[in-house]
Amino acid sequence: MFARICIALCMFFASTLALAANTEAHIKQSIEAWLGGHMKVTSVHKTHFLGLYEVVVGGEVLYTNDKATYAILGNVIDIKAGRNLTQERVAKLAQIKFSDLPLKLAIKQVRGNGKRVLATFEDPNCTYCRRLAHELQGVTDITVYTFLFPILSPDSVDKAKAIWCSADRAKAWNEYMLNGTAPTAAQCDTSALDKIAALARRLNIHGTPALFLADGTRLPGLVPAPKLEQAMNHAGGIR
Length: 239
Prior knowledge:
This protein is an alpha+beta fold. Helix content is about 40%, strand content about 20%.
């Protein structure tokens, strides 16, 4: 009797898993078709609220029913707990493993003991990146890894290449971002910029500046120094 019950339970769970897999596959196919085949669905799974399914596309979250006949774009709020479940999920999806970053492709600057770490993706022509450079002047005990990610214009690419080919990359970067002093054009192997662009695509980075803390937390956009200090202290550091 016990053996038959175990077999029945196993068959039940197997059929349930198969049904769930079929539903998720159907949702994936339907949403990708709705998006015109231009974007791929990264994942589909059932949430614990309202019977909805979470669909991840390009690092963003939308919701649908099991038939994929409706799509919901927006935030789901847990009113009782006072939590934005969608924002929490998007932040979790945006997290990375800091140690996986190819830091040799970044411009490295160490201030003070360098205990706290920050990785940034920046465009030389980005106004908010320049403001970030000024904010960082007042931050000590930090190691900053700047990945050149020129996406705003062809001129951005030219400036990024000139900075990368400078004898002192950190100096060239700071002189341009802080003082507007353009780097002298030079020739060198700039394949690192292509590798950074590919990395940014994998990380779903679509704008600059994009910041990453030691614990992998992503901070999109300009962050004032006091808020950045607080965030870095909470994230810890990597030596």
